[in-house]
Design a protein that fits this description.
The chain is α+β, with helices and mostly antiparallel strands. Helices cover 17% and strands 34% of the residues.
Length: 131
């Protein structure tokens, strides 16, 4: 027959083996769960603000051996498709929000049908070429 405590409930028996197993399980879960996984390297289009006509792009990648994340807020100046005339103005570009743009050389994708280059130029210009 078990004893009841003052609240009318059976007291919990202390089992040292169970405590060690529970602590070890909790330690493993916390140590594995705290490791950060990096976003794939490239340019992720995260938002478009229509009133300001600004695109927000998050650049992720390894630079000088260190993984870094950089936020770019850009306005489109022109768009050109093949031999067609260029379309000027902030409404010219139609980037897909959520898309990860990975340059072909970084992704290992050398297929001419899926060729993408991205250049960050010193004059604060971001050039994305895709064909």
């Amino acid at each position: 027959m078990s004893q009841l405590n003052r609240h009318g409930k059976r007291p919990i028996d202390f089992d040292p083996y169970f405590s060690i197993v529970a602590f070890a399980t909790m330690f493993v879960a916390l140590s594995c769960g705290c490791k950060k996984t990096h976003e794939p390297e490239g340019y992720r289009v995260v938002s478009y603000d229509a009133p300001s006509q600004q695109w927000t792009i998050i650049r992720t990648g390894t630079f000088d051996g260190k993984y870094m994340v950089k936020k770019l807020v850009v306005v489109c100046t022109f768009y050109k498709w093949g031999e067609h005339d260029a379309v000027d103005g902030p409404d010219a570009c139609h980037l897909q929000v959520g898309r990860l743009i990975v340059p072909s050389l970084e992704s290992g994708n050398a297929d001419k049908n899926d060729f993408i280059t991205v250049f960050e130029m010193p004059n604060e210009t971001l050039s994305i070429t895709e064909w």
